[in-house]
Each structure stands twice: as structure tokens, then as C-alpha cells.
């Protein structure tokens, strides 16, 4: 039996490259591993992201710009959980990720965490930020 590799996959509707660039800019030792673009006469918009791989926080994430219009988007029931190492880090990430997004739980002290926030970023991806 071989070990299957499991990675999160985010499907955007035209914002994949902007999202990848933001996420990679926010975390140390992050990188864009690969971007493959739709070409002429392919299903997606020419030049948009057919497939991208990037890493943040030792996690590889896949994404694309959907070539098909669909009636669904991201949901906060799936989120990227970030264990922050300092108050400065959680404040910086909260400020960047919440800009033009939606905050579900403001950055605050909760019974289960010294500082925590839950939000959707401007692309609709949910994040939980934790500084225990």
C-alpha cells in the first residue's frame, strides 16, 4: 500500500494568483512552487491560473481559477489554522488577512486561547489565527 499525499485545494474564480501572492508574502519561508496558466483555446481564461502549488508554514497548498462558473464558493467551516509565535505576528496577520474581508471572531482573548481570531480574507478563504 502506498501513502497518499493529501493537500488542501482552493478553487478561486479569477483571484488565484493574487491570493497566492498575498499568502506567500505573509509567512516566512513560503514560496510559489509552480504556476501553470491556461493557454489559448483551453477551458479557462487565457493567462489565468490553471494550477498552482505554493507553500506556507510547511504546508503545500494547491489552487486554481475555476474554468467553470459555479454556484458555490468557500465556506468558513473549512479554514487554515495558524499557530502564531508572537503577539506581533498574530496582529500583523490579522491586519493583513482581515482587510476587505469578514471577521467572524475578532482578535481577542477567549477561554481557549490568549489571542484568537477567525475571519474570511478578501478572497473568501477562512483563517483561524491562534496565539496560545
SSE blueprint:
Layout (H helix, E strand, L loop, with lengths): L8 E4 L3 H11 L4 E7 L11 E8 L2 E7 L13 E5 L3 H12 L3 E9 L2 E8 L5 E6 L1
Parallel strand pairs: 1-4, 5-8
Antiparallel strand pairs: 2-3, 3-4, 6-7, 7-8
Structure description:
- This protein is α/β, with parallel strands linked by helices and 132 residues long.
- The chain has two domains: 9-65, Signal recognition particle alu RNA binding heterodimer, srp9/1 (2-Layer Sandwich); 79-131, 2-Layer Sandwich (Signal recognition particle alu RNA binding heterodimer, srp9/1), CATH 3.30.720.
- 17% of the residues lie in helices and 41% in strands.
- It contains two helices and eight strands; from the N terminus they run βαββββαβββ.
- The protein has helices spanning 16-26, 87-98, and strands spanning 9-12, 31-37, 49-56, 59-65, 79-83, 102-110, 113-120, 126-131.
- The strands form two sheets. The protein has a four-stranded mixed sheet with strand order 1-4-3-2, covered by helices on one side.
- It is globular, with a radius of gyration of 16 Å.
- The termini are far apart.
- The mean pLDDT is 96.
Provide the CATH topology of the largest domain. Signal recognition particle alu RNA binding heterodimer, srp9/1
CATH class of the largest domain: Alpha Beta
If strands are numbered along the chain, what order do they take across the biggest sheet? 1-4-3-2
Dominant shape: globular
Q: Nearest-angstrom radius of gyration?
A: 16 Å
Residue runs with pLDDT of under 50 for 5 or more positions: none
- The total of helices stands at 2
Mean pLDDT: 96
Strand proportion, as a percent range, falls in 35-45%
Amino acid at each position: 500500500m502506498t501513502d497518499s499525499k493529501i493537500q488542501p485545494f482552493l478553487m478561486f474564480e479569477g483571484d488565484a494568483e493574487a491570493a497566492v501572492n498575498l499568502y506567500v508574502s505573509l509567512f516566512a519561508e513560503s514560496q510559489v512552487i509552480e504556476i501553470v496558466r491556461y493557454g489559448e483555446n483551453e477551458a479557462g481564461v487565457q493567462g489565468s491560473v490553471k494550477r498552482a502549488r505554493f507553500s506556507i508554514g510547511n504546508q503545500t497548498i494547491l489552487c486554481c481559477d475555476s474554468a467553470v462558473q459555479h454556484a458555490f464558493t468557500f465556506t468558513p467551516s473549512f479554514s487554515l489554522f495558524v499557530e502564531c509565535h508572537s503577539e506581533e505576528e498574530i496582529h500583523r496577520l490579522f491586519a493583513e488577512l482581515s482587510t476587505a474581508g469578514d471577521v467572524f471572531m475578532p482578535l481577542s482573548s477567549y477561554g481557549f486561547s490568549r489571542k484568537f481570531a477567525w475571519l474570511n480574507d478578501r478572497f473568501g478563504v477562512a483563517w483561524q489565527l491562534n496565539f496560545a
